Amino acid sequence: MSNRNPTPEDDSSQQDATERPLMYRLAQACARHFLGHPVPSPEGVKEIADLMQQIRAPDLGLVEDGPKLQHIEFVDVLETPHFTVGIFLIPEGRFLPLHDHPGMTVLSKVVFGELLVTSYDKADYSRPTSQHDFEVPFPAVVRSAGELVRKEDAPKVLHPTYDGNLHEFVAHTDCGLLDILAPPYDFEGGRPCNYFQVVEGNGASSRSSAQLQVGNVVKMVATEVPTDFFTLRRPYTGPELPGHSNANGQQEEVGTRGPEHA
Q: In b/e form, how buried is each residue of 173-183, taking b as 16+ CB within 10 angstroms?
C-alpha cells in the first residue's frame, strides 16, 4: 500500500503512456479525475470505467484458476486521501454484507469468476445515517436483485445518491473484484461504512434477492457489522504503480470493521 498521492503526470521515464501496464494507467486516470474533484465528471468516470473494462486477473498479479479461495481476502492496492484502489477475493457462497457509500462514487469490476449484485437507493439521501435509522425502518428502492455479473461485463458504477449506493455482493463462484472509491471511507471525518438489513417488503432479508423485484420499495434498518463477516489481508503483487511500492508479508486478519471498499 502507498500513502503518497500519484500525480496525473507522475512519470520517471519517456515510455509511451499506452505501453504502460493497465493498472499504472488506471492509477494516473484516477489521479487526473479524483484529485480536487469530490464529484468526478461523467467524462472522467467513463475514462476510468473504460480502463477497468480491459483489466483481467493477470494485470493485478492474480491467478484466475488458482486454488479454491477459503476466506474473503482484501488486497490494498493504492490509498490516497482522494481515492483508494483495492481488490476483494471472495470464495463461492460468501458475501459482502449490505452497506453504503456516503457521498462517494464507486466503480467495481469483476476480474474473474461470477458475482451476484443486489443494490438499493434510499428514498431520502438528504441526511446521514444516524442512530434513528437503527430503530425506525426507512424506505429504499430496489435497483438490482441478484444480478449476475461476470468478468466480461462493464464495471458497476454507483454515485452518492443514485445507481444503487447501497449494495450487497454474493460470490456465485470464486471471484475477484477490483474496487475504486472516491473519496474513501473516513470513519472519523463523517464518512463511515454503514450496514443495513431489509426488514419489510418482498424478501425477509437483503439476501433473499430471488424475492425482490427492481423498482420495489422495501423498508430497511441500519445494523451493526455482521459478526460472521471478516477479511484477511493479501499483499499486492501486481505491477508497480505511481506512488506505490510492492509489499511483502503474511496475511493478517483485518477483523469485522467492514469492507475497506465495495
A: ebbbbbbbbbb
Using alpha carbons, select from 59, 61, 94 the residue that is nearest to residue 173: 94
Give this prediction's pTM: 0.85
d(CA 86, CA 103): 19
Q: Taking the CB of residue 256, how many other CB atoms lie within 10 A of it?
A: 13
Task: Spell out the alpha helix ranges (H) of the chain.
Answer: 22-34, 42-54, 132-135
The C-alpha cell 461476470 sits at 150
Grid coordinates belonging to 128: 446521514
DSSP string, 161-189: TBS-SEEEEEESSSEEEEEEEESPPBTTT
Q: Is the pLDDT of residue 261 over 90?
A: no
* Neighbouring-strand partners of residue 142: 120
In the numeric block, which cell numbers belong to residue 83? 481515492
